[in-house]
Amino acid sequence: MTPDISIIIPVYNTAAYLPATIASLQASDDDITYEFVCVDDGSDDESLSILQSWADTDPRVVVLTQPNQGQSVARNTAISNAHGRWIYCLDSDDIISHDALSAAYAEANRLGVGLLLFSGDIIDESGRHIDEVANTIYTHQRYQRSEELPGNKVMTGTEVMNILLRTFSFRAVPWLYLIDAEFLKSTGIVFRPGIIHEDELFTATLIMSCHSVATLHRTLIHHRIRQSSTMGATFSRRNMDCYLTVIDGVQEWLHDNPSHRQTAWRYCAYTLNHVLITARTLPWRDRLQTLRRITRSGYLPYLEPKRLLQFIYGK
């Protein structure tokens, strides 16, 4: 029997949080059928044993293992082994509302779309929502859909992307999207291995490729931000190089999708100008090498003069 939704779960050293994630999935309503495709990416904690214990008691759970190759490869492995009509990517330390996916599934099928967007909020390491944490360091993160995106309306991916860019509300994280599996397969889009910020390339090209996108104005996912894994990481040359690789990937995608050139140009300008704000803190040698790559790649036209000068002078 084909599951309604395949939930894709890449796992790497999240044993401290994985039981709560599993509990939230087990509490999901039974209006639809699921499979849980979990890929342990070479964890060296108890993550794999937790997954195997779950699989022993729940026939819907598939556990795959691989040497550590990164989140992109883990997600691609899971997706290639999924059988559901819809694909949903969940991080292994997040919490999902009990009726989240049934609500998303019902709306996506009712409107007949290839991609459904919805909202999320943030919890900290202890599971508290950011609104409950005074002076939180997480308050700058927002995953609520802009009211600029109407509910109960089917739009093209180009229309949606242009609105998201104009309202500064584009969010690349894949756990804010329910994806039609047949549509995803038809695009050939996968997570690019070997880079960080891989979801930027995956989500941007996926949205622009889709002819039918809708938005559900509900908060369905509670995303956990951990100090050690996210907020504690400093921006480095590798971050900048990976963002530029994302732009390279968009150019490659455009070769086969030339009709999206204008929207893709806006996305590239949006992304590069925003990342330069952070990249200006890099050492001068790294900024010089980055500038050379931007120039060689022909990406200078994407940059606002003010942002470029701030990046060059580190101010």
Give the percentage of residues in beta strands.
Answer: 15-25%
Mean pLDDT: 91
The 3D shape can be described as: globular
What is the helix tally? 12
Secondary structure tally: strands? 8
Under CATH, the homologous superfamily of the largest domain reads Spore Coat Polysaccharide Biosynthesis Protein SpsA, Chain A
CATH topology label of the largest domain: Spore Coat Polysaccharide Biosynthesis Protein SpsA, Chain A
Helical fraction equals 40-55%
Which descriptors apply to this entry?
8 strands, 8-stranded mixed sheet, 315 residues, alpha/beta
Describe the structure concisely.
The chain has 315 residues and is α/β, with parallel strands linked by helices.
Topology:
Elements lengths: L4 E7 L6 H9 L7 E8 L5 H11 L3 E6 L4 H10 L5 E4 L5 E2 L3 H12 L3 E9 L33 H10 L10 E4 H7 L10 H12 L3 E12 L2 H5 L5 H20 L4 H19 L4 H14 L7 H9 L2
Parallel strand pairs: 1-2, 1-4, 2-3, 6-8
Antiparallel strand pairs: 4-7, 5-8, 6-7
